[in-house]
Every structure is written in structure tokens, then in C-alpha cells.
Amino acid sequence: MSRFRGWCRETGCSRPITHRGLCRKHYDYGRNHGLITLNSVLPPLERFLNRIENVSESGCWLWVGSLRGGYGILYAQGRRVSVHRYSYEWFVGPVPQGFLLDHLCRVRNCVNPDHLEPVTNRENVLRGIGPTAENARKTHCIRGHALTGENLYVNQGSRYCQACFRLRRQGRRSGRVAVTTA
């Protein structure tokens, strides 16, 4: 069975949408009488609203249209638009220059503007779950040494433990690797 996409936009009709915002009866009538052509499309906002599925328990508005990399896309004014950005700009306002939208709910196809926050690219990466974010959150090395103060060495944006570096150097000098924990 197909997913529910809303009700027919024809006044007084209570049938579910099947094509272009219309029920099957009104769509067929429009095609047969020349009211709907293959080139006629709904306005972008109407197409956007027809492709949202409300999930009440999480509060997410899930995009059920086209996806690219897990993020929804919509064609508006001849170009491809990210639907979470379209939603934010429609309901809240423009995204500040140099900012990205972060999904606070961590759901890529969510378009609820309450779940979107403008942040810098750096902040967006550090809020994530990738290796860069995981390493930035580390407070101790794998051997338990604190990554602070004199024990912290930073080279080209990467953080290293000085105590572990000294242990590796001692191990190389003696011909074996010295391993101790803090």
C-alpha cells in the first residue's frame, strides 16, 4: 500500500492524494480535459508540504520525497535545494552567511525548523559522531594520561600525549617498546 500524503486539494474533496496534490478522480478529470499537462507542476511550497510525514513522538517532520546522502532535496526555481534549508528559510528566516544548519535531532531527513539550528561548520563537525568530533572530546590518551597542559602537544591540529611520546622514545632507544599506564 502507498504512503499517505494528505488530502486532495480540490474544494470539498476528502479523498487521499495520488498525483500532484489531487485524488485519482480529480487528476484523471484534469488530464482528460486539458487542465493538467505534463509540464504543469505545483508551486515549490505545496510540493514541499505534500512530502512531509509528521512523526509525533519525536517531533520530527520527515521528508518522504527524494533523498541525496540521507538529506531531502527539492527542485525549486530551476535548481536543487536542500529541504531542511528550504524549511528553515520559509518558517524562520534566512540562514546567516557562513553558517550551516545542524539537525539537533540527528535525523538527516527531518525538516522541522524547531530541530534545526544555524552553526558554523566547525561547531557542526564537533557536534557530530565522526572521528574528528570523537578525538576532540577525548580528555585522556589510550594509556590514561591527561591531555592537558604540559602533557599536551599539538601539531597541525592533531593532539598528542607527551608522556606516551617519551615512553615510545625510551623504548626505541633501549630496543623495545616501553608500555606503562598512568
Index terms:
single chain, Homing Intron 3 (I-Ppo) Encoded Endonuclease, Chain A, rod-shaped, 6 helices, alpha+beta
What does the model show?
This protein is an alpha+beta fold and 182 residues long. The protein folds into three domains: 1-40, no CATH class; 45-127, Homing Intron 3 (I-Ppo) Encoded Endonuclease, Chain A, CATH 3.90.75.20; 138-174, no CATH class. 29% of the residues lie in helices and 19% in strands. The chain contains six helices and nine strands. It has helices at 24-32, 44-50, 83-91, 121-127, 131-137, 162-174; strands spanning 52-54, 61-63, 67-68, 71-76, 79-82, 100-103, 116-119, 152-155, 158-161. It has a three-stranded antiparallel beta sheet with strand order 3-4-5. It has a two-stranded antiparallel sheet with strand order 1-2. A hairpin with a 6-residue loop joins strand 1 and strand 2 (61-63). The protein is rod-shaped, with a radius of gyration of 26 Å.
